[in-house]
Automatic annotation (TrEMBL):
Domain of life: Eukaryota
GO biological process: anaphase-promoting complex-dependent catabolic process; cellular senescence; central nervous system development; G1 to G0 transition; regulation of cell population proliferation
Organism: Platysternon megacephalum
Protein name per Swiss-Prot or TrEMBL: Augurin
Record GO cellular component, one term: cytoplasm
Subcellular localization, as worded in the UniProt entry: Apical cell membrane; Cytoplasm; Secreted
Keywords assigned: Cell membrane, Cleavage on pair of basic residues, Cytoplasm, Membrane, Secreted, Signal
Amino acid sequence: MSFGDFISAPAPAKTEVSVKENTAKEFLSSLKRQKRQLWDRTQPDVQQWYQQFLYLGFDEAVSTSLASVQI
């Protein structure tokens, strides 16, 4: 069987939408999510987790140096 032997499917019918494409694109482009570092220590939830990790013996300096070691 060669590539030309495949039967092509008919193109799907165009779906009716209630919002024009330009309006939808404008709306979607206006949405911006605030980016922040995962370990942004100004956030209370991060401070809580960080303190818990320290309590459990987690040391950020050691873990980052271990992560850079090639195995």
